[in-house]
């Protein structure tokens, strides 16, 4: 089928390529990329017309004001029966609002929590989708192409996709923090432990084996001893939102909360070995910018 991909960065660009490899026609739009098919929504929407299907636009731009502006303008340019998909990390309350605003114009809306980072092109993307059965059915061929087997779920009504992705990212905080603290303890041991070898032994047969562990091993090979990696890890909105939801619903979430607070602490530029691991892991799976120290120890 035909669709427009809005935002051709690390995620959007690779998703567009994966869809093309699966036989879909993708019209890419990004004002900052000269080779894009369109450089504005006004240019994009007329290019989405296809016989036998409504116009479909998938937004992969940063959450917040940019997503708000994008969806508002799409609501002005698209027609009744067309479909907007937000695959970014929007707050689920924003997605519910977007769905209501577009529904008033007869335009379908789906919120798709999307995980896979820079590895999704080859491995596929985990998709957590919220929307009506009718809206999801329109985009089902797209979801089938993007996701690996068992990597897709229609999780509920509009808002449910981004709610599940929010919790997914909160769990990610806790997992990364646990690996980071384990690394720091091993590295601080007076026994002279070969930390890379020790952690590598967990990759097969261990109950703590995981893709994140594999990425930690890769990070240590790329940057031995994490030399030069600054001990600061940024926090994105999803970790905060997950803790907020836990409080609002009376759910105890000490691990996720502690992992979030540890990131806050790291942002005060304290020397923390564990935060070097978290920073390195964020770079490995998501391509997030990584801070490095200068030879004199200053961060940049």
Distance between the termini: 45 Å
Describe the sheet with the most strands. 7 strands, mixed
What is the alpha-carbon Rg in Å?
21 Å
Q: Could you tell me the mean pLDDT?
A: 92
Share of residues in strands: 5-15%
The SSE string, one letter per element, is EHEHEHEHEHEHEHHHHHH
Q: How many DSSP H or I helices?
A: 12
Measured as a percent range, the helix fraction is 40-55%
Query: What is the tally of beta strands?
Result: 7
Structural class: alpha/beta
Poorly predicted runs of 5 or more residues: 294-300
The backbone outline, from C-alpha atoms, is: elongated
In spatial order, strands of the major sheet run 2-1-3-4-5-6-7
Q: Care to give the gist of this entry?
A:
The chain has helices at 10-21, 41-44, 65-77, 92-103, 120-123, 133-146, 160-188, 195-200, 211-222, 237-248, 254-266, 273-286, and strands at residues 2-6, 25-29, 56-59, 83-86, 108-115, 126-130, 152-156. It is α/β, with parallel strands linked by helices.
For this entry, give a set of tags.
single chain, about 300 residues, alpha/beta, 7-stranded mixed sheet, 7 strands, about 10% strand, elongated, disordered C terminus
Structure explained in plain terms:
This protein has 300 residues and is α/β, with parallel strands linked by helices. Helix content is 48%, strand content 12%. It has helices at residues 10-21, 41-44, 65-77, 92-103, 120-123, 133-146, 160-188, 195-200, 211-222, 237-248, 254-266, 273-286, and strands at 2-6, 25-29, 56-59, 83-86, 108-115, 126-130, 152-156. It has a seven-stranded mixed β-sheet with strand order 2-1-3-4-5-6-7, with helices on both faces. Strand 6, helix 6 and strand 7 form a beta-alpha-beta unit. Helix 3 runs parallel beside helix 4, helix 7 packs across helix 10 and helix 7 packs across helix 11 (254-266). The termini are far apart. Mean pLDDT is 92; it is low at 294-300.
């Amino acid at each position: 089928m035909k669709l427009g991909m809005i935002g051709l960065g690390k995620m959007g660009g690779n998703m567009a390529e994966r869809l093309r490899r699966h036989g879909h026609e993708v019209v890419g739009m990004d004002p900052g990329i000269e080779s894009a098919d369109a450089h504005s929504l006004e240019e994009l929407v007329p290019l989405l017309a296809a016989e036998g299907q409504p116009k479909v636009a998938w937004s992969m731009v940063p959450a917040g004001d940019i997503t708000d502006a994008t969806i508002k303008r799409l609501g002005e340019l698209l027609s009744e029966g067309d479909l907007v998909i937000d695959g970014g990390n929007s707050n689920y309350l924003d997605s519910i609002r977007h769905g209501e605003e577009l529904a008033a114009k007869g335009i379908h809306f789906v919120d798709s929590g999307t995980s896979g980072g820079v590895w999704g092109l080859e491995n596929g993307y985990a998709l957590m989708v919220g929307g009506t059965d009718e809206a999801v059915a329109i985009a089902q061929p797209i979801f089938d192409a993007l996701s690996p087997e068992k990597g897709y779920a229609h999780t509920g009504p509009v808002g449910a996709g981004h709610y599940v992705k929010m919790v997914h990212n909160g769990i990610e905080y806790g997992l990364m923090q646990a690996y980071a603290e384990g690394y720091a303890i091993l590295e601080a041991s007076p026994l002279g432990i070969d930390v890379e070898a020790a952690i590598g032994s967990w990759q097969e047969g261990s109950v703590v084996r995981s893709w994140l562990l594999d990425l930690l091993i890769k990070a240590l090979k790329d940057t031995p001893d994490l030399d030069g990696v600054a001990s600061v890890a940024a926090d994105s909105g999803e970790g905060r939102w997950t803790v907020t939801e836990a409080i609002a619903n009376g759910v105890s979430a000490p691990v996720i909360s502690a992992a979030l607070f540890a990131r806050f602490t790291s942002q005060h530029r304290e020397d923390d070995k564990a935060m070097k691991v978290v920073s390195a892991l964020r770079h490995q799976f998501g391509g997030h910018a990584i801070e490095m120290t200068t030879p004199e120890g200053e961060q940049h």
